[in-house]
Specification:
By secondary structure, this protein is of the alpha+beta class. The protein has helices at residues 27-42, 63-81; strands at 9-12, 18-24, 52-60, 83-96, 99-110, 124-125, 131-135, 138-146. The strands form 2 sheets. Strands 1, 2, 6, 7 and 8 form a 5-stranded antiparallel sheet that branches. Strands 3-5-4 form a 3-stranded antiparallel sheet, with helices on one face. The chain starts with 8 loop residues before the first strand and ends with a strand.
């Protein structure tokens, strides 16, 4: 997914944190746009060079937990590896028995304070008001991140 396609992202009013909705034709695309929305709250993702790709493979009990874990993993990589991401490719989300599995790639670069200007500091992903909904047009996910 290209980071400059922001018509799939809507930031919603929230008194203290960042709340957004992301939509896609598939659940994988909606997860991709949710990741873009989270990083878009922190930084202009269009300034991120796409030079380093990390693989992500996660299992969870349900799709909400999978979304939470996916965004939390990206936030962890941002904080620990000091990488900002500008592109996310969710290859698949599948159910295997009792678990849901996500395989994805996140692409970006090491933080460069000379080029990357940070807006909001995201501390954590929350389950508060989280929503994953199938619509006539695909999927919508809603997330609140703690700032």
């Amino acid at each position: 997914m290209q980071p400059n396609n922001h018509n799939h992202i809507e930031y919603l009013d929230h008194p203290a944190d960042v709340k957004f909705r992301a939509s896609g034709e598939t659940i994988e695309e909606a997860f991709e746009y949710a990741a873009i929305a989270m990083f878009g709250a922190m930084i202009d993702t269009d300034t991120v060079r796409l030079v380093t790709t990390l693989d992500i493979d996660l299992d969870a009990d349900d799709c909400e937990e999978l979304l939470y874990d996916f965004l939390s993993e990206l936030l962890y990589l941002f904080e620990v590896e000091e990488i900002v991401f500008g592109r996310f490719d969710v290859e698949q989300i599948e159910r295997h028995g009792d678990l849901y599995n996500l395989r994805a790639h996140a692409t970006g670069e090491k933080i460069d304070l000379g080029r990357h200007r940070f807006d909001v500091g995201v501390k954590a992903v929350t389950f508060h008001d989280m929503l994953i909904e199938r619509t006539d047009y695909g999927y919508v996910v809603q997330v609140v991140v703690d700032t």
